[in-house]
Amino acid sequence: MTRKTELSTHAAKVRPVLQAIARLVSTDRRAVILATDKAEVLLSNAPATRVGMDAEGLVKAFDWPALCVRARRAGSIAVSTKFQNTELEGELVHMPLGTADGFLLRLAETDQEAALLRNRTRTATLLRVSHDLRTPIQSLLAATDAIFQSEEVDAATADARRDQMQRSAQLALNHIDNVIKVIRGELTTADIQSDEDFSLTEEVRATLDMIKPIAGARGTAVSLHLDPAEDVHVHGPVRFVRALLQNMFDNSVKYGGTAVDVHVACTREPSNAQVAILVEVSDLGGGLPEAQKVRLMRAIDLADISLARQTGAATGPKDGRPSAGLNVLAHALGQLGGTLEVLDRGEDGKAVAVGTDSKVIGTILRARFDLAPADQIAPATIAPKGETIDGQTLAGVGVLVVEDSPSSRDWLVHCLRAAGASVIPVENGLRALEVLQNADAVQKVDLLLTDMTLPYINGIELVQRIIGMQSSGALAWQGKMLGLTAHIDEDLRAACLKLGMAQLLEKPIRSVDLCRSVHEVVRSAACDVAPVPGQKSGRGSDCSSTQPLAPNMVKELIEQLGLDTARGFMRRARSEAGAVFEDILQNGVRADTGRMIHAATGACGLTGLKLLERTLRELELLADAAQPIARKQLGDLEVALDVTGRVIEELE
């Protein structure tokens, strides 16, 4: 068959589908757009035109490529944004069109409907996040009971139990804070669904650490097998991965009998850009109770596949509704675009074949999903052409990056990995402590690189806790520490150096200077690293509404990352600044406002958004001084957001 014939055949198959979609789009009262992942509009209606939702509007209102990646993975996702002073709420649906992909965006018709959708989404998110509180709280209670019930144990065992209790408490605080953020509207659906780089291996270990006290209280032994054994870094919605792991592990421990075996395998074929992930949890609980199987079937919609054939279980309403935990598991699995098998485990440890009379000794939960590798979107080199890091790379150097701004965190990770470093990214100091308390941290982490303004505990408090735990013998890790902040004053620098931090770097910082500092700190015998020269060269009055970007920094970013990736980082930084604007507009200045502004300021500085960086800095000074932010300052930020957004899209 010739290429022309193939195209003709494909068009004939797709034409009826497009005609049906066209009829739906044209008669819908809501704004509806069918577009490609490159924002090429295939179909749209009059309401979409009225709200300005054309090809240019899609790019300005959304991080369109990232939305399409998530919709392709999950099938459909909720979307929320503010565009041209209008709150937009709706859904983006992936629509395969033969060999091509289409994405159907359907927005709410009225402000009232948008508010209803927003509240409904927030409520559903709150229910899921609140449910995830149960496991860390149970872990904390189990760890506490183990301490109080043990009368005579050696010092090492007592210390291990206290460390476990502390980790469980930290995880519980993390989850409680997420719930509070959802209630306040600070943690949106977009935040929860957002993709970022993370270590899948570390997430598995951290989740098991949380589950182990519960398993210990039930007399259940938990084992872990990783294939490969080394860390696997991927790019995707880490919060949904955590929810899936937590509910799979928790469910198996609850019904698992005396032993639960966890197997995680990651493979990447040369022909496939994705990492294929298998998470298998096997137990010795004699098999799931029939009622639990039915609820699980209903939650993950397995009524027509192997589980129904294996068990013959009924699926009618009389058999009960799925529990909150199963609904959370099903939702996470859907957002990951994954599948779940629920199988009976035989005496040989393998799945019992359908239709056989083999003895069932337990259950196997087997989840499969694909995520992009973290290195897929990393640049090939971070050094400008002709430059090296003193002739060295960061190969063999392990860096723990602590940064609450997602766009700043990804920027730092990509720069360091491109220079050869092994990087573990976390979003706050509590997660950093979890990583450092792992037994393999001594071998895997050479340097802690932390932002100084963080949620829960700031950078100074993080370093103080690390030093205190080292002094008491509770922390074996003895690596070096490097600070990073958007604004340095001499008091902060002196405090950091007094605590033993090697150096305090200031954002914005060029990627080559960042990597050089990391190299010098790791290789130096003492904390005598010279400050990075010329860090403030990008600051000052070199920005205006006619030139909102720092030209040299933007040029360097594009050379290092390519135009599309550089623009993606800039969009994300601008989105963080936009979230700050919306939060202040709706809630005024709150206790956490200064930290939020600081994070957005750093993100804008790292990506060359100078006008936004300067405008945010002025707001941060007001917030730090507990002064009200006037409408004029908010107006300046709104103008900066608009101007910067236009210039980002005009880059070429």
UniProtKB/TrEMBL annotation:
- Per the record, residues carrying 4-aspartylphosphate are D451
Keyword Nuclease listed? The answer is no
Which keywords does the record carry?
Phosphoprotein, Plasmid, Transferase
Domain (Histidine kinase) spans 128-360
Residue intervals of the HPt domain: 558-652
Bilayer-crossing regions: none
CDD domains linked to this entry: HisKA, REC_hyHK_CKI1_RcsC-like
The entry lists its GO molecular-function terms as: phosphorelay sensor kinase activity
EC number(s) reported in the record? 2.7.13.3
Response regulatory domain location is 398-522
Q: What class of enzyme is it?
A: transferase
- Please write the reaction equations for the catalytic activity of this protein: ATP + protein L-histidine = ADP + protein N-phospho-L-histidine
Residues bearing the modification Phosphohistidine:
H598
According to UniProt, the name of this protein is histidine kinase
**What is the source species?**
Pseudosulfitobacter pseudonitzschiae
What is this protein's gene name?
rpfC
